[in-house]
Protein: Hemerythrin-like domain-containing protein
Organism: Candidatus Hydrogenisulfobacillus filiaventi
Amino acid sequence: MGSRTPDKVWAIFEEDHDHLLRILDRMAVEAPADVVAEEAGFAGLLSRHFRDEEEILLPFLEQHGEDAENVRHHVAEHLAILRLNEQVLEYARAGLADLARQSAARLRLLLVQHVEHENESLYPEAERNVSPGERGLIRNLVQGRRQQEDAGTGA
Ligand SMILES: [Fe+2]
Ligand SMILES: [Fe+2]
């Protein structure tokens, strides 16, 4: 995934990607009960990541001329990933090990493709178009919101 600069805004999002994919690596081979146990953390992280991209990152990109169709496509992919994740959870809850593992593997593939697209186009565009001041603002907004949530849940 290339080299990383810790002060980049996208580093927060890239860490999420790594974390999510690591959990999916496990889910693709785990027993249903373990998948159900993992899901609590995974679903929370996934929703938070998508929410921060949609509510904080994408509006800045749109302001800088990002094509509205690209944004809609990006959000539609988030929904497809969330739906597939619900399927993983349903299979796991029902104790259907093969189906749970297969859908977790499919989910991983979908997420990898989504992340590749972000790394190839969305984040580089943001890097080019969003000013350093705005990047600092994005970072503060994302970090501030997450810190508040973690404090609220005692995490
Ligand atoms: Fe995304
Ligand atoms: Fe992302």
